[in-house]
Amino acid sequence: MLLAGQAPSFAQTSSTWNNRQCAVVLTYDDAIDVDLDNAIPALDSVRLRGTFYLIGSSPVVTKRLPAWRQAAQRGHELGNHALMHPCDGTLPGRGFVTPDNDLSKYTVSRAVSEARVNNTLLKAIDGKTARTFAYPCGDLTIGGVKFYDQLKNDFVAARGVTGGLQKPAEVDLTNIDSYMINGQSGEYLIDLVKKAQQSHTLLVFLFHGVGGGHSLNVDLKAHRALLRYLKAHEKDIWVAPMVEVAEKIKAYQQGSTSK
């Protein structure tokens, strides 16, 4: 039984989630072959759409550009994961960062310019002007300055790497929470969705490899189980690309502040 005061809150949340219990966004990082070989065919087979965060300099963008264009035409979002995927090399566990792609050696203007160049590339592929950004390695700052502050007008929102389920009013559109998946079972993935359904929240999955292709990986069976569950419950769960969900959240938040 709902207590007084709970019903309006759920009604507003339900409206933001396209009159469903919750919203689920499936995101895939780094523009790798398995995106096109495994993830997109799996999504297309159940008519679900995801967001693919592309690194502009990835050779998989260059050599398979028509396939990315076809994915966009089928409704998948081509998100911006920066031109060179710069990460802060001063942080622990960052031995993979090269001097050329060390975010700590960037200026803010360089990071902003490279993100905008990647937007130009992505627009040339899909013809779209609205899209979202994903922070490489989840790094938000250069010398303590949040570089995305200069990019807010270039994107609908930006996705981070901190796990969490959030209601529309709680979402920070400059750093949206997401669950990074690496080796978890299909049961774990589905359980996260059930929690989002119960709490009427936003759930964002962050995948890299799907059936291989990356050191961070979800197995094909687990990924397939998640997609099957989402498809079977599509009357209760809104599954859409990040740009569409973020636009709904932005409208909700702007409406709330104007009241």
**Coarse structural class:** alpha/beta
CATH architectural category: Alpha-Beta Barrel
Q: Which sequence of SSEs, written as H and E, runs from N to C? A: HEHEHHEHEEEEEHEEEHEH
**How many strands, what sense, and barrel or not for the largest sheet?**
6 strands, parallel
Total discrete domains = 1
Q: Which fold name corresponds to the CATH topology?
A: TIM Barrel
Number of E-type strands:
12
Radius of gyration: 18 Å
For CATH, the homologous superfamily is named as: Glycoside hydrolase/deacetylase
Separation of termini? 28 Å
Pfam family, one: Polysacc_deac_1
Protein name: Chitooligosaccharide deacetylase
Domain NodB homology: 22-240
Keywords: Signal
Attribute tags:
8 helices; two-stranded parallel ribbon; TIM Barrel; 12 strands; alpha/beta; 39% helix
Task: Describe the protein.
- It is built from eight helices and twelve strands.
- The protein has helices spanning 6-16, 33-45, 59-63, 65-73, 108-126, 186-199, 220-232, 242-258; strands spanning 22-29, 51-54, 77-80, 133-134, 141-142, 145-146, 158-159, 179-180, 202-207, 209-210, 217-218, 237-239.
- Strands 1, 2, 3, 8, 9 and 12 form a six-stranded parallel beta sheet that branches. It has a two-stranded parallel sheet with strand order 4-7. It has a two-stranded antiparallel ribbon with strand order 5-6.
- The protein is globular, with a radius of gyration of 18 Å.
- Helix 2 (33-45) runs parallel beside helix 7 and helix 6 (186-199) runs parallel beside helix 7 (220-232).
- Helix content is 39%, strand content 15%.
- It is of the alpha/beta class and 259 residues long.
- Keywords: Signal.
- GO terms for molecular function: hydrolase activity, acting on carbon-nitrogen (but not peptide) bonds.
- Pfam families: Polysacc_deac_1.
